[in-house]
């Protein structure tokens, strides 16, 4: 019952009504200021993360470019390497020509004396 009397007093008394509205306005202003601060902080954090992501992406691009140039140089070198079949042919030829078989033991003893 006291509450109804208080509400009637606020409705009937313009000063009390004005004070109530000013209080609501102050509360809303505080809430809006808080939201604004949070928005600014959130934007700053997001911008900082974005800068870090851009740096990471730039670093990754540089790494990819280095790997790409390395792969290109390696692929150019592969053509200079001997193939397995070529090595097998050379091994067979080396077995056919054994220079130590041409040198006899006597020749080795003569070489040792010199």
The gist of it:
With 114 residues, the protein is an all-alpha fold. Helix content is 89%, strand content 0%.
Shape: rod-shaped
Percentage beta strand: under 5%
Termini gap: 134 Å
Number of domains: 1
Average pLDDT, to the nearest integer? 81
> What percent of residues adopt helix (DSSP H or I)?
over 70%
Sequence of secondary-structure elements:
HHHHH
Tell me how many strands there are. Answer: 0
Radius of gyration using CA atoms only: 46 Å
The major sheet is characterized as: none
Task: Enumerate how many helices there are, as a single number.
Answer: 5
Flag low-confidence runs: none
The helix-and-strand class reads mainly alpha
Give a verbal description of the structure.
With 114 residues, the chain is an all-alpha fold. The chain has one domain (2-113). The chain is built from five helices and no strands. α1 crosses α2 (14-78). The chain starts with a helix and ends with a helix. The relative contact order is 0.03.
């Amino acid at each position: 019952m006291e509450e109804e009397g208080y509400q009637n007093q606020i409705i009937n008394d313009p000063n009390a009504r004005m004070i109530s509205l000013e209080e609501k306005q102050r509360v809303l202003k505080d809430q809006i200021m808080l939201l604004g601060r949070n928005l600014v902080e959130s934007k700053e954090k997001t911008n900082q993360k974005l800068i870090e992501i851009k740096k990471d992406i730039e670093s990754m691009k540089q790494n990819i470019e280095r790997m790409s140039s390395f792969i290109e140089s390696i692929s150019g070198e592969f053509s200079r390497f001997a193939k397995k079949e070529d090595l097998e042919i050379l091994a067979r030829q080396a077995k056919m020509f054994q220079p130590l078989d041409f040198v006899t033991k006597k020749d080795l003893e003569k070489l040792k004396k010199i």
